[in-house]
Amino acid sequence: MDFNLSSEQKMLGDSAKRYLSQNYSFDIYLDQIGSNMQINPERWQKMLDLGWFGLPFSEENGGFSGSLFDVSLIARALGEALSIDPYVDNIVLPGKLLEFISSPTADAWLKKLIDGERTFSAAIYDVDSHYDINHTNVILEDGVVNGQKSFVSNVGEVDYLICYAREASDEQPILFIVAVEEEGVEYKDCRVLNGSRSGVVTFNNLELTNDKILCVGSDATAAAQRAIDYVTVLECAAMIGAATAAYEKTLEYAKIRKQFGTHIGSFQVIQHYLVDMFVELQQAESMLFMATDKGAVKDVAESQAAISSCKAYLCKSVVAIAQQAIQIHGGIGVTEELDIGHYFRFITHLSLIHGDRDFHMSRYMKRTGLEDKICAVNMA
Amino acid sequence: MDFNLSSEQKMLGDSAKRYLSQNYSFDIYLDQIGSNMQINPERWQKMLDLGWFGLPFSEENGGFSGSLFDVSLIARALGEALSIDPYVDNIVLPGKLLEFISSPTADAWLKKLIDGERTFSAAIYDVDSHYDINHTNVILEDGVVNGQKSFVSNVGEVDYLICYAREASDEQPILFIVAVEEEGVEYKDCRVLNGSRSGVVTFNNLELTNDKILCVGSDATAAAQRAIDYVTVLECAAMIGAATAAYEKTLEYAKIRKQFGTHIGSFQVIQHYLVDMFVELQQAESMLFMATDKGAVKDVAESQAAISSCKAYLCKSVVAIAQQAIQIHGGIGVTEELDIGHYFRFITHLSLIHGDRDFHMSRYMKRTGLEDKICAVNMA
Amino acid sequence: MNLEFSDTEKEFQKDVQSWLSDNVPADIQEKTQNGEMLDKTLQQKWEQILGSKGWLATTWPKQYGGPGWNATQRYIFDVERAKAGAPGTSPFGVSMVGPVIFNFANQEQKDRWLPGIVSGDTLWCQGYSEPNAGSDLASLKTSAKKEGDEYIVNGQKIWTTQAHWADMIFCLVRTDSTVKKQQGISFLLIDMNTPGIEVRAIHSIDGHHHLNEVYFNDVRVPVENLVGQEGMGWTIAKFLLTHERTTIAGVADTKQEIERLKHALKNTRSGSGVRWDDPQARRRVAELEIDLMALEYTNFRTVASTDNGNPLGPESSGLKIKGTELQQQVSQAIVELGGPLSLAWDNKEAIGNMEFNKATRRYNFLRACTIYGGTNEIQKNVIAKMLLGL
Amino acid sequence: MNLEFSDTEKEFQKDVQSWLSDNVPADIQEKTQNGEMLDKTLQQKWEQILGSKGWLATTWPKQYGGPGWNATQRYIFDVERAKAGAPGTSPFGVSMVGPVIFNFANQEQKDRWLPGIVSGDTLWCQGYSEPNAGSDLASLKTSAKKEGDEYIVNGQKIWTTQAHWADMIFCLVRTDSTVKKQQGISFLLIDMNTPGIEVRAIHSIDGHHHLNEVYFNDVRVPVENLVGQEGMGWTIAKFLLTHERTTIAGVADTKQEIERLKHALKNTRSGSGVRWDDPQARRRVAELEIDLMALEYTNFRTVASTDNGNPLGPESSGLKIKGTELQQQVSQAIVELGGPLSLAWDNKEAIGNMEFNKATRRYNFLRACTIYGGTNEIQKNVIAKMLLGL
Fold first, then answer.
1. Contacts of A348 in chain C (CB under 8 A)
2. B9 to chain C: nearest residue by CA?
3. Average pLDDT for C6-12
4. What's the pLDDT tens digit per position in A125-142?
5. What distance in Å separates the CA atoms of residue D244 and residue D355, rounded to the nearest whole number?
6. How far is CA C138 from CA C61, C153, C180, C211, D67, in A?
7. Do residue C279 and residue D279 have CB atoms under 8 angstroms apart?
8. Which CATH number fits domain D249-386: 1.10.1060.10, 3.40.250.10, 1.20.140.10, 3.40.50.720?
9. Residue D123: how many other CB atoms lie within 10 Å
C-alpha cells in the first residue's frame, strides 16, 4: 500500500491551495453568503483555467480523467478555505450525471459544461424524498411535465437543469434536461445553511420534446445514483478540509488565548479535548482515503459500502470536531465575525446533503449483508 | 412533591446499613463468590428477623405492606455493601410471583416464604427466551412436564421452584410449583458474573398433580410480568447503591493516590471525570426515585414505561460510572483484591438481568406510543 | 416521598393554563411555536402582559411585587408557559438585577428601580464579561473613578445580550486597582442613554443579533447608582451565581422542543409515508425523552427542596451542565432528523415542514448555551472544588 | 495512492494462510476461538511452533533470526493469524527486550539472549511499574547497588504480566539516587531463578492469573547483565515506547472479535428466531465495523509509511488510544448483546452459546487495556505536549 501522493497529485493539491489563498478569503465568503450570487464569473473562469472543470471527466469527453482521489483534493482545499463556490454542486454533480448517462446527447452537453459554455444544476430530490432519489412526484405524461423538485443548487444562476422524474404510463424513471428560462419552469429560492442558495423548481405543464429526454429506466436511476455517490465522497473531502482548518485554528487559539493568567491550552482538559479532535481527525481522514479508493471500484455494493461507511463516520466525528472547536473558542466561537462558527455551519450543511448518518448507516448495512435475514430453520 | 424520606423510611434505610456494616464485608463477599453457598443461614435468619422477608408483601399475606420505595432502600443498601445475598432473587421475586397469583394455594406458599420456613427460586426464562418471558418450550402434556429452564438463581440451595411453562393442548401459559428434590427434576449450575450461582433445570417427565398448578392463562403471564417489573426496580436500586459506593471510593482514592508528586485528584481531567460521575449519579438516582413511585401505579403502560426508562437509563449511565471508577483507579482497579472491579461486575450483572438497555428502550417505546404507526393517508 | 402534585398545585396548574390560553397573543405564539426569534416589541409586549398580571417577577417576594409562588408553582408555570407556545422572559431584570437590588440596595434604590422591572417596562442588560475577562471574570478592567458625586466609567464590555434593547445596564466595574483583583470590584447601575456609551452589534451564528459590545468612554454615573458599598461587586456577583433558579435546567422548553420534534416527524411526508416511520428516528426521540426525564426529576428534587426551605442539595449542581447538554442534543436531533429540510435558512414559506426549516438557527444559537453563564468546563471546576473537595 | 495489496503481498498472504491451516494445533485453536485463556504450556507450545518456522520474532532483522518481513507482511500475518484462531504472542521477549538487546547490548549479550527469544524457548517478563510508580514511571525505587561484579537488587515490581511463567525479567532499576530521577535509572536483565526473588500472584477481574508482584530481596545479578551503561535505563525505556509496533492498535484481533459477534448473533436462538433478527443488534455491529475500518485504515497508513522508510506520521499517535477504546467497545457489545447468556462465568457446557458465555471474562480483562502501557490519559498528555505543542 502507498498513501503517498504522486508528484502530479501534490502539484494539484498545492495549486488548489495557492489558487484559494490568492483568490478566496473569509471576507469574500462573508460577501458571498450575503449575496444572491454564488457563481462568481471571475473565479469561475479561473477554476476553468486551472482545469478543474475537466478534471473529473474522462478524456473521451474532453476531460482530464482525474481519479476520484484527484478531485477530492480540490474539494478538500475548497473546504479548508471555507469556499462555497459551487464547484461540486454545479460542475461535478451535473457533469457526472451527464457522463454516467453516456449517450451522444449527454456527451454533447457535458462538453459544454467542461468548456464552461453553459452552466447546470441537478434537480434530483423532491421535498419529500428525504434521501431516497427513487421517490419523485414529478411526472411526464403526454409529453408534458408537472411537479416540483427541491434542493436545486443555485438555480437562479444556471442555464440548464438536469431533472430526475418519472413517466406516468409505466412509472419508469427518466432524466431530462431543460433550460431554466423555458416556459413552464418556475422557481423560487432561499439561502441555506452554508450560505449558498437552494431552489424549489415547479414544472407547470412544461412541454418536453424527446431530445430533452436524456435517459430512461434503470439507466437513469443508475446514473443519478452513481453521480450522487461520486459527489458524496467529495463532500466528505470538503468536511475533512473544513475540520482540519477548524482544528488548526482552535489549536492556535488555545495557544494564545489567555484566561486565569495562562494560555487556555495549558489546561489539561483543553489539551485532552484538542488531542481527541486531532486523533479523530486522523481517523476521519483515513476513512476519506478509503472512500476515495474503494468508492471508485466497479462493484456497486463494494463502492456504496465504502462511501456510506465514510459519510456515516464523518457525520459523527467531524461534526463533533466542529462543535468542540466552538466550545474551546468560547463566546467568540458563536459569532458571525469569526470563521469558526461558519466552519461549523459548513460542516453541518455537508452532513445533511445526499444522506445523513442514519441513511448511510442503513445503506452500509444493506450493502454488507447486515440486513440479510437468517433462516432460523437452519439452526441446530 | 416531597423527596424526603419519612422517619420510618430513614429508620429502615439506617437499619439496613447498620445490619450490613455489622454482618457483611468485602471478605465475606470474597468467600461467598468462591463458594457454592449463597444463602447463608445466619444472615438469612437475621434478614428474617429484621422483617425484610415480609416487607414487600401485604399485611393480609402476613407481610408489612412496605412500598416499592421502602423495599428499594434494602436493595440499595445491599448494592452499596456489594452484598450478593440473594434477597431479591430468592425472597422478593418468588414471593411477588406468589402474591400476584393471588390464590389461596399461592397465599399459603407465600406465608411459608415470609416465615422463612421454605425457600424458593423462580424459573421464568428458557435459555433462548432472551428477555421475552412469553417464550418457553417447557411443556405440560398429559399431566407430565418436559423441557428446560435456565437462569434459576441458586437452585441448589432452595426447596421449591416456581416455574413458568405452557400447556401443550392450547398453548396456555401456566405457573406451577415443584420441589427441587422431586423425581423428574434435574439441575446443574454454574457461577455467574456477580459471583452467585445460576442453574439450568431439566424437567424429565415430571408428573404434575393439579394442586401444583398455581395459575393458568393470562393471569400467569401477568403475575410473572408484574413480579419481574417489581424486582427490576430493586435491581435499579442495587445498581445505584453499588455505583454510589464505587464513586465514593474512587473520589477517596483520587484524594490519596499520588503520581507525579501530587494527588491524582489535582489533575483537571480526573476532576472532570469525577464531576461527570457525580452528576450522572444524581441523574440516575432521580430516575430511581421516579421508578419507585411511578413503577407502583396501577396503569400497566405507565408503570412499565417508568420502570423501563429507569433501567434503560441506568444500563448506560451507571455502567459508565463503574467503568470510569476502574479507569481512575488504574492497575489496582482491575484486580480481584480491590472491591472496585467487583462493583463493576456486580453492576454489569444487574444491567443484564430482566432486560438490558435495548429491551427496555424498546418496551418504553411500545408503552409510550413511540411505536404507534402514523396513517399517512391522514396527511394533508 | 411523594412525587405527585398536590390538589392545590393541580388547581394552580389549571388556573395558569386557563389564563395562558386567553392571554398569549397570537402573533407571539405563532413565532414561538415555529422556533422563531421575537423582536424587541413583541418580547416586551409579552413581558408587560405578564407584568400587568403580576406574573413576571415570579421569583420575587410579594412585598416587591412578586406573585409569592413557591418553586413548584414556578415550575408548573414554566411548563405550562412553554406548552402554550409562549416565550421565556429575559432574565436580566427579573432574575438578576432585581434580586441584587432587593438584597443589597437601599430603600431609595429599591423604590426607583424595582417597579420598572416588575411591570416589564424597563429592560436591563448585564455588563460582566470583557474581551480579556471571559471565564476569568475577576480580571475585568472597566474602571469607575469617583469624581465628586459621579463615577467616570471607561472600558468595554462584551457578549452583552440585548444591550441594543436595554434601558439600563448593571455592571461590574473596577473602583480600586490597588487591592486583590476580586476586592476592587463594584456593582454599578448605568442608564444606557448616558452620553459616552456606544453599543456595537455582534451577530451570532444563528444569523441574529442578540449580543453586543458596549463601550464606555468617560461615562458619568451618579454615585447613587452604586449598589452596596464600593468593593462589594464580587460578593454580589457570587450571590447571583448561587441564587436559586429552578429554571436553569431548561426543562420546560426542552420538553416542548421534543414535542415539536415528534409533531414534525409525524407531519412530514417522506416517500410514501412520513418521517415518523423511521425506527431510528423514534429510537432517538425515546433516548431524548428518557434523558429529559432524568433531568426533570433531578429538577423536581431541587424544586421540592427549595419549597421545603432546605438548602440546595448536591443534585442541583449538575443542572446547568446536563440541562445545556440536553438542549444541544435535542436541537441537534431535530436538525439531523429533518435532513435536507433543516438546510433552509431564510425561507418565508415552508419547505416540507417549517419546524425543521427553523431548527437550524436554534441549533446554531444553542452552541452558546454551554458557554455563557460560565462554560460547562468552569462549572465542572467549581463542582470539583466546592462539592467534591478536589 | 495505492491502497491495494501487491501481487507479491497477496502471494505472501496465501502462504501464511496455508501454513497456518496446517500448523495451528487443534486444542489451541479451540480455546482461542472460544475466547478462553491459554495456560503456559499451550502458549509456549504455539510460540515454539512459530519459532521453529522463524515467524516468531516478526519485527526482527534477518541477522538476528527475524523473517525479514516489512510492516505490511507483519500486518497480513497478524490478520491471518487471528482469522485462523491462533493466539497472539507474548510481547515481552520479542517486541520489548529483543529490540533493546539488538540495539543497545554488546555482542556477548546478543549471543547469549537472542536465540532463546527467537525460538520461543525463553519466556520474559517486564519489570517496570512499582506500587508508587505507575503512570509516573520515573519515580521508581527498586535499587541496584554495585558490589564487585554483581548488582544487589532490592525493591518491588508490580503488574508484572506472566512473571509466574517467565525465565527472565528485564528491569528498570535505580543505580544512582543522587542525580535527577530519570538519570539514575539502568536497564538490567535478571534470571527469575535467582535466590531472593519472590513472585506473588495478583488475580485480575476476569478471574485469571495474569499479573504478579515481584519482590527482590538482596538479589545478586552479574554486572554482565547490565544493558548499555549505567544511567541509560530511561533512554532505553523511551526507545521502547516509540519503537515501531504496527500491531498496537489490535486491529487483527478486534476484527476477529466482531466476526465472532456476528457468528454468535446468527447462531443463537432467541424466541422463534435468532439474536441476529434484532435490528438494534445489527446496527450496533455496523457501527463497530465502521469504527474498526477507520482504525484499520489509520493503521494501514502507519504500516505503509513504515515500509516506505518514513518516520511515523501523526496518524499513528492515536492508534493505542483508539485501538484500546474499540477493543473495549466491541467487547462490551458482545456482552450486552448476549444478554443473559453473558452472565455465565465458569460453565463447562455451553449455555445457549459458548461465545457469549465466554465474552464476559474478556470484557473484564479488557478494562485493563486503557490502563497498561501508559493510561490513555497519559497518552493524551504526551500527544498534547509532543505533537500539539501544548
1. 335, 360, 363
2. C1
3. 95
4. 999 999 999 999 999 999
5. 33
6. 30, 17, 10, 21, 64
7. yes
8. 1.20.140.10
9. 21
pLDDT for A71 equals 98
pLDDT digits (tens, 9 = 90+) for D163-206: 999 999 999 999 999 999 999 999 999 999 999 999 999 999 99
> Which of D265, D354, D377 is the best substitution to test chain B (most B C-beta atoms within 10 A)?
D377
Q: What is the pTM of this model?
A: 0.96
CB contact under 8 A, A348 and C159: no
Cα–Cα distance measured from residue C241 to residue C91, given in angstroms and rounded to the nearest whole number: 13
Placement of cell 428518557 in the chain: C290
In the numeric block, the cell 418519472 is attached to: A166
Q: What is the pLDDT of residues A190-249, one digit of tens each?
A: 999 999 999 999 999 999 999 999 999 999 999 999 999 999 999 999 999 999 999 999
> Percent of chain A beyond pLDDT 70?
98
Domain contains B54: yes
* Chain C contact set for A84 (CB, 8 A): none
Give mean pLDDT, residues B87-93: 98
What span, in angstroms and rounded, lies between the C-alpha atoms of A23 and A350? 23
Task: Decide if B1 is inside a domain.
Answer: no
The pLDDT value recorded for residue D165 is 97
B374, three cell numbers: 402514523
Is the model's pLDDT at B135 over the cut of 60? yes
Residue D30: is it exposed, middle or buried by C-beta count within 10 angstroms (0-12/13-18/19+)? exposed
Single-letter amino acid code for the residue at C67: P
Is D368 in Cβ contact with B353 (below 8 Å)?
A: no
Per-residue burial over B342-364, b = 16 or more CB atoms within 10 Å of its CB, e = otherwise: bbbbbbbbbbbbbbbbbbbbbbb
Q: Do B1 and C387 touch (CB under 8 A)?
A: no
CA distance B332 to chain A (A): 24
- Give the nearest partner residue to D345 out of B191, B260, B357, using CB atoms: B191
Asked whether the beta carbons of B141 and B121 are under 8 A apart, the reply is no
Kindly list the domain boundaries of chain D, sorted by start residue. 7-89, 124-232, 249-386
Taking CB atoms and an 8 Å cutoff, what residues of chain B touch C381?
268, 271
Q: What angle do CA A127, A128, A134 make, to 5 degrees?
A: 105
pLDDT above 50: residue D46: yes
C143 and C153 Cβ atoms separated by less than 8 Å: yes
Picking from A170-179, B36-45, B283-292, C310-319, which range would have the lowest pLDDT averaged per residue?
C310-319
Q: Provide the Cα torsion C81, C85, C88, C89; round to 10°.
A: -90
- Compute the mean pLDDT over every residue in chain A, rounded to the nearest whole number: 96
- Collect all residues with Cβ–Cβ distance below 8 Å to C251 and sequence separation of at least 6: C75, C78, C79, C292, C295, C296, C299, C323
Q: Which of C180, C371, C378 to mutate to test the interface with A (most CBs of A within 10 A)?
A: C371
Enter the C-alpha cell of residue A302: 463494494
How far apart CA A225 and CA B159 sit, in angstroms, is 66
Name the band, by pLDDT with cuts 50, 70 and 90, for residue D317: confident
Residue of D nearest to B322 (CA): D367
Nearest residue of B to residue A269 by CA position? B269
Query: What region does A356 belong to: left with phi over 0, alpha with psi -120 to 50, or beta?
Result: beta
ipTM score: 0.95
Chains with 3 or more CB pairs under 8 A to chain B: A, C, D
Average of per-residue pLDDT across C68-91: 94
CATH topology of domain D124-232: Butyryl-CoA Dehydrogenase, subunit A; domain 2 (2.40.110)
Q: Which CATH number fits domain C7-89: 1.10.540.10, 2.30.30.100, 3.20.20.70, 3.40.50.1240?
A: 1.10.540.10
